[in-house]
Design a protein that fits this description.
The protein is α/β, with parallel strands linked by helices and 323 residues long. Helices cover 45% and strands 17% of the residues. A 6-stranded mixed beta sheet has the order 2-1-3-10-4-11, with helices on both faces. It has a 5-stranded mixed beta sheet with strand order 7-6-8-5-9. Strand 1 (34-38), helix 2 and strand 2 (65-69) form a beta-alpha-beta unit. 44% of the residues are buried.
């Protein structure tokens, strides 16, 4: 027998052993700390939620889950670190909307959301809120659209930066409403809110946590929220879809991803722990400060959400000519 034939025979002989090792690994998982990579700096919304969710998953699984902040590259550095990690369940990603946005915004795409990752599940969901300066003569989405059409290109909206989710929320709104408004990007949503309060810009699609307190204080006027149902935090506000833009649904979600080819048994254990963690009664209050609500899903449903958002943002980005 040739050397190649001998080695092939050895490999075939060892295959059952390798399969047994992988199966045993899945059965005993986890036996060491789990790293949850957050592609953002400490103190950000995804970081705060990631720490809460990670701790709760660890409690359910009886393992330590620690957050590893990998900021930079618009969020792509941390994401790529997970994509290149061993598919053993010990390196996970706390994914945010930028995960699906960057897949189309960056050229060339830094990763493939389907090829490079295995969905574990969505953990939380949240909404954005359309807020305007009180001097703007509108009290509803329909009035905003009518005003924008009467003054094409003259209304401006602020965002947390080019390609930021608060930017793309507005671009999506523009495309569906068929209006033209000027974008004013800021280095973060905080400075944008400050200028909106000062009347330097007309409106903003803000995270509900940042915008709603200013509405309650009478400093800004709210027109609508962005979800498919009304927000628990502002039940009297209609959704954008209710207000005359059918099909407009944008949520600020956070979820867990594993590297592609992670064994299904491990993904199943993580998904079960995520569901168990999100059922804690005290979690609603803890997450409310970040504008998030527990909304766990399984791997398949989360995968469909991610795939749908990639398609949505790809169209918005192309229409707006962003890169």
């Amino acid at each position: 027998m040739s050397y190649r034939g001998t080695m092939l025979g050895v490999a075939l002989t060892l295959l059952p052993a390798f399969a047994w090792i992988l199966d045993t690994s899945a059965q005993t998982y986890p036996i060491r700390p789990i790293r949850l990579i957050v592609a953002s700096s400490p103190g950000s919304g995804v970081d705060t939620v990631g720490r809460i969710v990670g701790q709760r998953i660890g409690d359910v699984m009886g393992a330590q889950v620690f957050v590893d902040n990998r900021a930079g590259g618009g969020g792509s550095i941390g994401v790529q670190a997970v994509a290149k990690s061993a598919p053993d369940g010990y390196t996970l990603l706390m994914a945010a909307p930028s995960f699906t946005i960057n897949a189309s915004l960056m050229r060339p795409p830094p990763y493939d959301v389907v090829r490079d990752f295995a969905p574990v599940g969505r953990a939380t969901t949240g909404q954005y809120i359309i807020v305007v300066h009180p001097s703007l003569p509108v009290t509803s989405v329909k009035e905003l659209i009518a005003l924008a059409r009467s003054r094409p290109g003259q209304l401006n909206f602020g965002s947390g930066g080019n390609g930021n989710s608060t930017h793309l929320c507005a671009e999506y709104f523009k495309s569906l409403a068929k209006i033209d408004m000027m974008h004013v990007p800021y280095k973060g949503s905080g400075p944008a809110i400050v200028d909106l309060l000062a009347g330097q810009i007309h409106l903003m699609f803000a995270n509900i946590t940042a915008g709603l307190p200013q509405v309650k204080a009478g400093r800004l006027r709210a027109l609508a929220t962005s979800g498919d149902t009304r927000s628990h935090a502002a039940p009297n506000l209609p959704t954008v879809a209710e207000s005359g833009i059918p099909g407009y649904v944008v949520t600020s979600w956070f979820g867990v991803m594993a590297p592609a080819r992670t064994p299904q048994e491990i993904v199943g254990k993580l998904s079960g722990a995520l569901h168990g963690a999100m059922r804690a009664k005290d979690l609603l209050e803890k997450l409310a400060g970040e504008g998030a609500e527990p909304a766990p899903t399984g791997p398949a449903e989360f995968g469909r959400l991610v795939a749908s958002e990639v398609q949505t943002w790809a169209k918005v980005i192309k229409t707006a000519g962003l890169q």
